[in-house]
Amino acid sequence: MFVVLLVLIVILGSVVFHMVSPWWWSEIASNWVGMDDTIILTFWITGAVFVAIGLFMAYCIWKFRYDKDKKAEYEPENSKLEWTLTILTTIGVIALLAPGLIVWNNFVTVPKGAYEIEVVGQQWGWMYRLPGKDGVLGTTSIKNIDDDNPFGLNTDDPYSLDDVLVDADDLHILLDRPLKLNLRALDVLHDFYVPQFRAKMDMVPGTITYYWFTPIKTGEYEILCAEYCGTGHYAMLGYVYVDEQKEYDEWVDEQMTFEEVLASNGKSDLIKIALNKKNDL
Amino acid sequence: METKKDSIIDQLTQKPWDPAQVKIDNSHEGKTFNLHVGKLGLRYLMIVSTIMFCLFIVTYGDRMIYDDWVKMPEPFLLWINTFILFVSSIIFIRIQIASKKNQFKKAKRDLILVGFLALVFLIGQFLVWQNMVDKGYYVYGSPANAYFYLFTALHGLHLLGGLVYWVMTIRKVWNINDIDIRKAKHTIELCSIYWHFLLAVWIVLFGLMLFT
Amino acid sequence: MAADSYEDVVKNKESIPALEVAPQDLYHAKSFWTKYIFCQDAKVIGIQYGLTAVAIGLVGLVSSWLMRMQIAFPGLIPMDAAQYYQLVTMHGMIMVVYLLTALFLGGFGNYLIPLMVGARDMVFPYVNMVSFWVFFLAVIILASSYFVPGGPTGAGWTLYPPQAITSGTPGGDGLGIVLMLVSLAVFVIGFTMGGLNYVITVLQARTRGMTLMRLPLTVWGIFTATVLALFAFPALFVAGIMMTLDNMLGTSFFMPAIIQFGEKLTHEGGSPILFQHLFWFFGHPEVYIVALPAFGIVSDLISVHARKNIFGYRMMVWAIVIIGGLSFVVWAHHMYVAGMNPWFGFFFATTTLIIAVPTAIKVYNWVLTLWRGNIKLTLPMLFSIAFIITFVNGGLTGLFLGNVAVDVPLSDTYFVVAHFHMVMGIAPVLVILGSVYHWFPLITGRFLNERLGKIHFWVTFIGSYSIYFPMHYLGFMGVTRRYFEVFEGEAFTYSITGINQFITVAALVTGAAQFLFIYNIIVSSKFGKKAGKNPWKACSLEWRTKDVPPTHGNFDKELPVVYRWAYDYSVPGADEDYITQDTPPSAVANARAEQT
Fold it and tell me: Residue B124 — φ and ψ, nearest 5°?
């Protein structure tokens, strides 16, 4: 009969572990409280089912243990019971799914007025690009990439000259402003993940993916690459700093625009072409 | 003894413990279909390979819609090869008729002819490949090229697999005697079904490449 | 059916002749080679599959030990990042494909299907033999990748391009990935031949009286899993071929234009996500290819050892079939955050959560089988109980990951690792262990040692639960998977060093217990207690063979005729608490079910 004890210990032990576990998610720093809430709801429903099934099973094992003078019941099926359980389960599933889909709908619908930043992943580090004064990110192509143009910007795109290029692993973003991250990978899959923001999305070479969130707390947050990307995957780290407007502006001012990068490399002819294009508009 | 089978839904809703059902079930002969296992096995393999080709075609469709898709030319030789496959299929119908009438000499002659045509087809496909390579259509040149080589290679492999079965068929027909007649007829039937299948697959693939 | 008197029924039944399979040439072994090596007897082939799968599975087990050592005690066993990722990849691929799939379908399928449906052998014994040797070849090719320059692939078992075939990944620019893809393609070919046998034997070679609804659930599970494999494996094959071409011939099926380490590769225009769709179109049904046989087998174990018919047999069959069907429309739930069209998320979250309903029904019915049963706490029963707990746990965490919004923070973390190990690692393995204890007396005629078995059970269940239950909580914190150096991230609310060490120690102990099990098998097969015929008093046909262990041809001169379903346990009025499937009604005339 030790096995009855075992079942009880495993069931109740799991519950106790859950309650005392110091391993739990960090305080949320973005607007995705809905995700946490859905997890909590899922916890309550699934936890109740887990405990109920476990305790019932422990009871059965103890109550109906073998006795050579007894005989088990002969009952091939009980449609009423089975259908009742099916319907209850369906209701539980709907209760889980509905809030999940609502949160997902928010997650994939970028609000108007969100500002954009491009995150570029490559083996094994991050780069960022801000849209600059015109507020529009210039178009890029992987074919353009070389030492002078690490982001592969199209020089004939009028929006590209004022783009701010950040060739470093750290990024600063604004507090309380919805932010759309455009995600691009140059070589293999990566995933820009900050646990406190909850959100993540793979970066896929050949396409641009995105997600959005609104940071709600200033501070310094560690970036982890969440999609296996080769030998250096574990070392693909960085920081996101959530700033007030003033600190953010100071940081942006320190960065170079694409125009400045080209100028510093002595490519003024390219700048001229780009400026002509801009005037044509 | 062939009996009519219940539909799958009827079978799955039976209550096997129900005494009335028990009585019916006890005389069940243990088969789901009135089909020989060989034929069923062939269908199984054809389903697997159809799924495989369908998946290739789905990826083809997925790739085709992009701007950089460049159509590939179809050399005239491909039409000839298609015709050869078509003729093989017709000959197989003749073989089947012959074997039904127990004219195994005729069947044997036609089987050799079909094997010969299969070889001609494979050589023909190889010539098409050479032709394409000479014209500079390499496998890595464009997605359409890649699919062309992939489709033709896979179809060729299926035909080679068919030739293995063809060898088994012709061996049975070669030393035909009274005991083997039933088996030989069965093998011939399976072999010809497979050949028709190969023709159908080829027509779908060829049509696909022709129109896109 | 009031019109038929009971006597009429009996008379009709008694007059039913045994059905001999039409002119099937039964194969006869003549020498050592044809008896043990190139054997066409499904039982021998089953054991060959089992031994090969376990042999390569031990490589997977040791890989997991080494991985866990690196995670908890870095430096203790010298290894670099490349080697770590190779261990991760080979562990995953070996366990999923070469151990679990091969063992359930190749091993249990071959051994049990002909016996349980009342056939003398599979319908195509020669193809069956070839199937094993092709599988063996696949294992050899896989193993050979350890010995090529650069070593085996370290692309992760999902083999996502572009990473899998580029130089930033171990084995990506060498032979490692090529051998992996070739091995998988060979495996698929071998499996197709095996599956051909399983499906057609179940459909066409059953003995007289064996309707579909009289089949034991084991056969239903293996049969449905094989049909799934028939549809799913071609996707793996297709993906493997196209990736091989990308790698060897420079085509661009999955490879977009990329620039790696400052160097532009020649590929252009391919789609990495297309590979993921193909892979998971195979990969998700693959989960059920492993799970459905486990579901079926555990149903039989519970029923036999609780001396009660499986509760809701029809619902159980329908659930297996429905789960099988639904498993083809849920694949993209592995790709919620993979960058596919976000609107797919709504569809796949819904289908995924729908699949929870038939799965839950199965769990209810297992537990309700225990209800008012007469439960013998034998080792197979203990493992079944452990399976239920583990599977319920793993299944419920699936509701987190299947629900698209919840998946966003949890995907690619240790929560996922814990979830799939619980649900498709530990749970099926517990069933395998339980079923070895159950069928060992049939295969060898002897029992496994009970005392060693008890130790094995306690260590395995408590150990594996301690490994994976706490691991979920690392995932909640955001600890990402596939990190060579597990460090204290700044988002983590509590140190992960201690818990990782605990998990590693648990993994070492649990793994070691499996060697005790293997020792038990070796010793007991020679010196174990003699079991005799049908020691568990089970109803199904595999215990009704002419000899124990069953010899070639399985049954006596005449094939058994089946008169009842596989679950006539504790029939009221019957003298014994079980009536075997081939017992004619006249022999148990008192039983209530025969009279109504």
Answer: -60, -45
DSSP code per residue over C411-468 = TTBHHHHHHHHIIIIIHHHHHHHHHHHHHHHHHHSBPPPHHHHHHHHHHHHHHHHHHH
Our count of domains for chain B comes to: 1
Chains A and C: how many Cβ contacts under 8 Å?
346
Nearest to A50 among C345, C396, C489 (CB): C396
Q: Nearest chain A residue to C478 by CA: give it.
A: A195
Say how far apart CA C415 and CA C524 lie, in whole Å.
Answer: 39
A206 contacts chain B (CB < 8 A): no
In a domain, B6, yes or no: no
Residue of A nearest to B16 (CA): A76
Dihedral sign, Cα of residue B196, residue B202, residue B206, residue B208:
positive
ipTM of the complex: 0.94
Distances (CA, A) of C260 to A152, A166, A237, B6, C120: 13, 19, 18, 61, 58
Strands A170-174 and A115-122: unpaired
What residue numbers bound the domain in which B163 lies? 37-211
User: Which position has the token pair 């990473």?
Assistant: C163
Other beta carbons within 10 angstroms of residue C143's beta carbon come to 18
Question: For the segment A139-176, what is each residue's pLDDT rounded down to a tens digit?
Answer: 998 888 888 888 988 888 888 888 999 999 999 999 99
What is the identity of the amino acid at C237?
Answer: F
> Is B28 among the domain residues?
no
Selected residue of C233, C238, C563, C586 to mutate for chain B interface (largest B Cβ count, 10 A): C238
Tokens of residue B172, six digits: 């049975």
State how far the Cα of A180 lies from the Cα of A202, in Å rounded to an integer: 14
C-beta neighbour count of B136 within 10 angstroms: 8
Domain hosting residue C595, numbered range: 541-596
Residue of A nearest to C412 (CA): A226
CATH of the domain at B96: 1.20.120.80
Tell me the pLDDT tens digit for each residue of A106-123.
999 999 989 999 999 999
**Minimal C-alpha gap between A254 and chain B (Å):** 40
Domains of chain A: 2-67+75-108 (no CATH), 115-280 (2.60.40.420)
- Structure confidence by residue, pLDDT tens digits, B23-43: 888 888 888 888 888 889 999
Q: Residue A223 in contact with residue A240, Cβ under 8 Å?
A: yes
User: Rounded to whole angstroms, how far apart are CA atoms A132 and A164?
Assistant: 6
Express each pLDDT in C461-499 by its tens digit. 999 999 999 999 999 999 999 999 888 888 898 999 999
Of all residues in chain C, the one with the smallest CA distance to A210 is C339
DSSP-derived pairing of the beta strands A115-122 and A179-185 = parallel
At B171, the pLDDT band (50, 70, 90 cuts) reads confident
Report the length, in residues, of chain C. Answer: 596
**Distance of CA C430 to CAs B85, C226, C464, Å?**
53, 21, 10
Q: How far apart are CA C78 and CA C14, in angstroms?
A: 71
Q: Which amino acid is at C229?
A: A
Check: CB of residue C378 under 8 Å from CB of residue C305. Answer: yes
Q: Which helix (H) or strand (E) holds A219?
A: strand A219-225
User: Number of B:C CB contacts under 8 A?
Assistant: 157
DSSP code of residue C485: S
Are the beta carbons of C218 and C202 closer than 8 angstroms?
Answer: no
Distance CA C159, CA C165 (A): 9
- Residue B15 touches partner A, C-beta closer than 8 Å: yes
Split into its structural domains, chain C has a count of 2
Query: In this structure, is residue C496 part of a structural domain?
Result: no
- Domain membership of residue B14 (yes or no) is no
Min Cα separation B19/chain C (Å): 7
Residues in CB range of A92: below 8 A, 6 or more apart: A45, A49
Cα–Cα nearest to A149, from A260, A280, A273: A260
Q: Is the peptide bond before C549 cis (omega within 30 degrees of 0)?
A: yes
Number of Cβ within 10 Å of residue C346's Cβ equals: 16
